[in-house]
Amino acid sequence: MPLRSSEKKGIIVLSFLLTGFFVFPLLIEEDDTPFFLLTQAEIPDSMVQLSTHPASPVKRFELNSVDSVSLTKIKGIGPYYASKILKYRKRLGGFHTPLQLKEISFKYLSVDSLLDHFYADPKHITKKEMDTMSFKSILSHPYLEYGEVQLIFKAKKEWGTITYSLLEQKKILAPHKLKKIKPYFK
């Protein structure tokens, strides 16, 4: 049975790996000389470059007031990712911490590399009153799901008015969910 080209490549790679794992170590042990490594590497002075100026500090942006033009100045953020950040900020009501950027799905960007560029000032968060909001507007908040919004409106029917403190007292939502939405609702 003839072998496919991918199978032939696999056999060749396997032979190289087996040679590297079994044959080369035996050769090194027999000769007592380094096979791949130089005994003492010397680097010419012309190749060594020392940095004479310290690294410049990273320019930091406040997440709740930054605009798309400023966001695109950060390496890795183009207009598409800038608009995703701004749309998410609008849905949330503002960022409480830069770690919330991890909640946005960035396909080709590591959020951890961006965290040094941002800080969040919670004073800029727009707190909303649940009592005056419609079902649909509360449901549009990224941290609340349909079932939870139904519980909130059920409580509103029962007690007439709804606030964050009432949700907390009556334990309408789970404690971790209450902690998550606390910065956004009065």
Automatic annotation (TrEMBL):
Pfam families membership: HHH_3
Keyword field: Membrane, Transmembrane, Transmembrane helix
TM spans (from-to): 12-28
Keyword Membrane annotated: yes
Alphabetical list of Gene3D superfamilies matching this protein: AF1531-like domain (1.10.150.280)
Record-given protein name: Helix-hairpin-helix domain-containing protein
